[in-house]
Amino acid sequence: VQLQASGGGLVQAGDSLRLSCAVSGRTFSDYAMGWFRQGPGKEREFVAAISWSGSMRHYADSVKGRFSISRNNAEMTVLLQMNSLKPEDTAVYYCAATERGWRTIDLSYEYDYWGQGTQVTVSS
Fold first, then answer.
1. Are 18 and 5 in contact (CB under 8 A)?
2. Which terminus of the chain is more solvent-facing, meaning fewer CB atoms within 10 Å of its CB: N or C?
3. CB 47 within 8 A of CB 57
4. How far apart (Å, rounded) are the C-alpha atoms in residues 121 and 86?
5. How sure is the predictor about 65, in pLDDT bands with cuts at 50, 70 and 90?
6. How many whole angstroms separate alpha carbon 44 and alpha carbon 51?
7. Euclidean distance between CA atoms 66 and 14, whole angstroms
8. Distance between CA 79 and CA 71 in Å, rounded?
9. In the chain, which ranges are E strands?
């Protein structure tokens, strides 16, 4: 499975960005998908996840109400719509895929495949 993240950039606080993750190689609908991020000098942290059917979503408290995750199984893509961006959202954002259970969906080590990351920088 290959994942390709895109859509990052430099924006001002309060702006929006939409990240996209294109998946290839296996049946996309077999996987729950997640987004993680790693800011400067910080550990990688969970951002959002969506179940294989799209019926379940889970967000980190820090992004709840501002970010929205969605997926299109026919196009094999997962999107992360980021609104009301803050400087603390600055990070490299990674998409990831997992075949494991939903209960541990916010744990990075439960994910089997990772994209290369896309930089998001939010200026104040």
1. no
2. C
3. no
4. 9
5. very high
6. 21
7. 10
8. 6
9. 2-6, 9-12, 17-24, 32-38, 45-50, 57-59, 67-72, 77-82, 91-98, 113-114, 118-123
Burial class (CB in 10 A: 0-12, 13-18, 19+), 68: middle
Q: What is the dihedral of CA 24, 25, 26, 31, to 10 degrees?
A: -50
3-state secondary structure of 21: strand
Strand ranges across the sheet with 17-24: 2-6, 17-24, 77-82, 67-72
Would you place residue 28 in the very low, low, confident or very high pLDDT band (cuts 50, 70, 90)? Answer: confident
Averaged pLDDT for residues 70-87: 96
The mean per-residue pLDDT over the stretch 29-46 comes to 95
Task: Please say if the pLDDT value at position 31 is more than 80.
Answer: yes
Reduce the DSSP state of residue 30 to 3 states and report it. helix
Residue 2 structure tokens: 């290959």
